């Protein structure tokens, strides 16, 4: 989960959400329903947004998470048309190993802006990260986006594929992978 700085989640200080000062960071919220408590633990304090895990593991124990580096996500919530400017995002995707507490960063070309990375499992996958991280990446020099596909187990390596799209896909556009039925 992405956590915004105070006063979003600090009791007694209001609830400004993403309109509060600062940028979002990656945190884990553990809900103790028996005692009515929520414990928050920061996992990575770098600015980042759009945390994703393998869809089959949502709300279950998981090891890996994927995020988009964010430059100043508060800009995304202050735009009147709801379309965040590219400068709200950054040119990197992050893979988190939540078991080991480590990260891998896939850097994209300068001035590129990465949106959320959706995890797509390989056919017959046995490991949680056996698959691909798929993200839209906007390239301002082309005025268009690429669909970038990274091998999740070789996250910092060259993309498996880069599909040049004819136009821009707004960053912040959410998606999910649904295999053929």
Notes on the protein architecture:
The structure is a single chain. With 181 residues, this protein is mainly beta. It has a domain at 47-164. It is 2% helix and 41% strand. It contains 1 helix and 11 strands. It has one helix at residues 74-77; strands at 2-3, 25-32, 37-44, 48-52, 64-70, 89-97, 102-107, 113-121, 131-139, 144-151, 161-164. It has a 4-stranded antiparallel β-sheet with strand order 4-5-6-7, with no helix packed on it. A hairpin with a 4-residue loop joins strand 6 (89-97) and strand 7. The longest helix has 4 residues, at 74-77. The protein is globular and about 55 Å long. The two termini are 29 Å apart. Residues 3-16 have low confidence and may be disordered.
Number of helices: 1
Strand content: 35-45%
C-alpha-based Rg, rounded: 17 Å
Shape: globular
Strand order of the largest sheet: 4-5-6-7
The SSE order reads EEEEEHEEEEEE
Give the strand tally: 11
Specify the structural class. Answer: mainly beta
Give the integer mean of the pLDDT values.
Answer: 79
Report the sheet with the most strands, covering strand number, pairing sense and barrel closure. 4 strands, antiparallel
